[in-house]
Amino acid sequence: KLQLTLAIIKPHAVKNPVALSYIRNVIKNNFVVLKTKRMILDAEAAGSFYEEHVEKFFYNRLVTFMASGSIDLHIMGHTHAVEVWRKLLGPTKVYKAQFQEPYCLRGMFGLSDTRNVAHGSDSLASAEREIKFFFPEFSLYNWYTND
Ligand code: CMP
């Protein structure tokens, strides 16, 4: 059964042609891509997307950064989409990524814990919430059934 996840390529990676084409190849070679969209989030939308982090010290920094330029969104399918995309991303913290898994996307292109290349849903439930957030017109149901 196809599982879906949402990838968000963050503004610094969208602006870096080498990073962007590398990331796109990784995505193309590992997933079926169902939907892709480029957009600019305003601070309000970025704030509500990351509302679970509202109490964290990095919240304002994260929201400002995510609203600072274009992001690329991809709805991606794989039998283990959530886990596979997070594995390809590597650890959230850039020092961990660089030292422990230098060939993961965050190890290669991460600049800081905030500018860590891309986002991946952390569970099926968040994938569903996040896909709805960015693609309200997208019907999960149509992809899960054949009739
Ligand atoms: P993301 O997968 O988009 O989900 C939450 C984001 O918060 C995370 O990636 C990072 O960009 C950011 N983040 C998490 N931990 C830290 C931290 N310690 N310092 C700064 N930013 C962080």
Structure commentary:
- The chain is globular and about 40 Å long.
- The relative contact order is 0.23.
- Helix 3 packs across helix 4.
- It has nine helices and four strands; from the N terminus they run βααβααβαααβαα.
- Helix content is 48%, strand content 18%.
- A four-stranded antiparallel sheet has the order 2-3-1-4, sandwiched between helices.
- The mean pLDDT is 95.
- It has 147 residues and is of the alpha+beta class.
- Bound molecules: adenosine-3',5'-cyclic-monophosphate.
- Residues 53, 58, 62, 92, 113-114, 116, 119 line the site of adenosine-3',5'-cyclic-monophosphate.
- Keywords: ATP-binding, Kinase, Magnesium, Metal-binding, Nucleotide-binding, Transferase.
- GO terms for molecular function: ATP binding; metal ion binding; nucleoside diphosphate kinase activity.
- The active site is at residue 119.
- It is an enzyme of class 2 (transferase).
How many strand segments? Answer: 4
Q: Would you tell me the overall average pLDDT?
A: 95
Order of helices and strands: EHHEHHEHHHEHH
Give the fraction of residues assigned to helices: 40-55%
Stretches with pLDDT under 50, minimum 5 residues: none
> Which secondary-structure class do the elements indicate?
alpha+beta
Lay out the secondary structure.
Layout: E1 3-9, H1 11-14, H2 17-30, E2 32-39, H3 43-49, H4 59-66, E3 71-78, H5 81-89, H6 94-100, H7 105-109, E4 118-120, H8 124-134, H9 140-144
Antiparallel strand pairs: 1-3, 1-4, 2-3
Helix pairs in contact: 3-4
